[in-house]
From TrEMBL:
Membrane-topology annotation of the record: Single-pass membrane protein
NCBIfam families: RND_mfp
SUPFAM superfamilies: HlyD-like secretion proteins
Record key words, sorted: Coiled coil, Membrane, Transmembrane, Transmembrane helix
Name of this protein: HlyD family secretion protein
Keyword Membrane assigned: yes
Coiled-coil region: 163-192
Ranges for domain p-hydroxybenzoic acid efflux pump subunit AaeA-like beta-barrel: 230-320
UniProt source species: Chlorobaculum parvum
């Protein structure tokens, strides 16, 4: 007997092909939907991963030279504005302060001395002026000679000159007092600068100082990251800025916290590209010009203060809704 074809086996062979077509169709539909969503999203959003969290960074530098005696803070320590960070040897500045105080006392004593000279010169002037008036009356009566009158006149004139000189010396002494007071204030100010304090609330992010180190003005010893507001600086391509305006909403994703999304908005757009503020700006007037797409910094602020432990310099991805 010849074998008859089995219809069930043929149906079983057709089932995998149908299933593959169904799966392929589902995947194709998902791909089309995803592609459509991304296409629509790309038309209404601008994204950049060239973005970092920024904050106020306060460099701490001494204003006087000297040897560091004590450092009162450690790396990553929280500080308040006015907290003492380090102290510099005060010996030289105490001596300068004491010398300035002595100069002030000397100048004040000179003022008292010149004031006494003015009083004495004034009394002498009054006496000689009275003698001159009497001599004139006597000379009119031919009681004294012309020579005696001339002598009285010369004495009165000399006393007037001495009184004027005493007043000038008094003014000069007052000026010396003001100069000594200014020098004393300067000495006290330099003495106060031997105690270096925190300029603002924040966290010690970098410490480059140890006891015994000799420091000079302008030398950065400590960097403090302010504990106030943080923001994001995103560097967008210039071709992405056509529809970008301040106030537009922004979604922020931090690389350190992949599952978290933060909301913010554009605060401002820089008036210059990043290349314009580089150490060596490009010279497009040369003959070797190559057009390169520039990036423009955009400042983005958070709508609410983040609860995440964010740090300045962290990488983020920002997405701006421009339409």
């Amino acid at each position: 007997m010849s074998e008859q074809p089995q219809p069930n086996s043929e149906k079983q062979k057709q089932k995998p092909s149908v299933m593959r077509l169904v799966i392929f169709g589902i995947l194709l539909a998902i791909g089309l939907v995803w592609g459509s969503v991304e296409l629509v999203r790309s038309l209404s959003h601008e994204e950049s991963d060239n973005a970092q969290i920024a904050g106020d960074i306060y460099p701490v530098s001494p204003r006087v030279t000297g040897t560091v005696l004590d450092v009162w803070v450690d790396s990553n320590q929280m500080v308040k504005a006015g907290d003492t960070l380090l102290t510099i040897d005060q010996s030289d500045y105490l001596v300068k302060r004491d010398m300035a105080q002595a100069q002030l006392l000397k100048a004040q004593a000179a003022v008292l001395a010149t004031k006494a000279e003015i009083v004495a010169a004034g009394a002498t002037q009054q006496r000689l002026d009275a003698d001159l008036r009497r001599s004139r009356n006597l000379q009119k009566q031919d009681v004294i000679s012309r020579a005696e009158l001339d002598a009285a006149t010369a004495g009165a004139t000399a006393s007037t000159a001495r009184h004027t000189a005493a007043e000038d010396q008094y003014q000069a002494a007052l000026a010396q007092v003001k100069l000594a007071e200014a020098e004393l204030k300067n000495a006290e100010l330099q003495l106060s600068w031997t105690t270096v304090t925190a300029p603002a609330d924040g966290q010690i992010a970098k410490k480059n100082v140890q006891p015994g180190q000799f420091v000079s003005p302008g030398q950065q010893l400590i960097a403090i990251v302010g504990s106030g507001e943080l923001w994001v600086v995103a560097n967008f391509k210039e071709t992405q800025l056509e529809h970008m305006r301040p106030g537009q909403p922004v979604t922020i994703r931090v690389d350190a916290f992949p599952g978290e999304k933060l909301e913010g908005h554009i605060d401002s757009i820089s008036a210059g590209t990043g290349a314009q503020f580089a150490l060596l700006p490009p010279d497009n007037a040369s003959g070797n010009f190559v057009k390169v797409t520039q990036r423009v910094p955009v400042k983005i602020v958070f709508d609410e203060k983040p609860e995440l432990p964010l740090a300045a310099g962290m990488n983020v991805i920002v997405e701006v809704k421009v339409k």
